[in-house]
Amino acid sequence: MMFRVYLRSHNGVAENRTVTPSPAVAMAAFRELLARSDLEGGKWAAVFSAPRLDSTGGNSSTYFSRFDRPVGDGRIAPDDPRLDPLATREAADRVMSSLPGRE
To answer: What is the pLDDT of residue 100?
Structure first.
């Protein structure tokens, strides 16, 4: 089972792929993408996909952070303490749609 982290343009082109079995390595790569100021305002998104795990009933969490949106409205801050590589889909949605400490 592998975690996948990458940049995705709004036209579907993917770049900077990280594929790893390590949740810690994947989350570090995702936070690094989230912190890229050169992408701010652009038509890119940082994507984090977790493997489907039996322990979560087959649910796969995916964080999708758009650089053309403000933090809390489709964009995730790189230092958001709620980021969890094994989060449920609902938890991932809350992180993408709210500011830290304001769920």
So the answer is: 86
The pTM for the full model equals 0.88
Instruction: Please state, in angstroms and rounded to a whole number, the distance separating the CA atoms of residues 54 and 34.
Output: 28
Average pLDDT over residues 66-72: 95
Query: Residue 9 forms beta bridges with which residues?
Result: 44
Which DSSP string do the residues of 13-41 spell out, in sequence order? -EEEEEEES-HHHHHHHHHHHHT-GGGTT
Cβ–Cβ under 8 Å, residues 58 and 52? yes
CB atoms within 10 A of CB 25: 15
Could you tell me which residues are beta bridge partners of residue 101? none
The predicted model gives 6-24 an average pLDDT of: 91
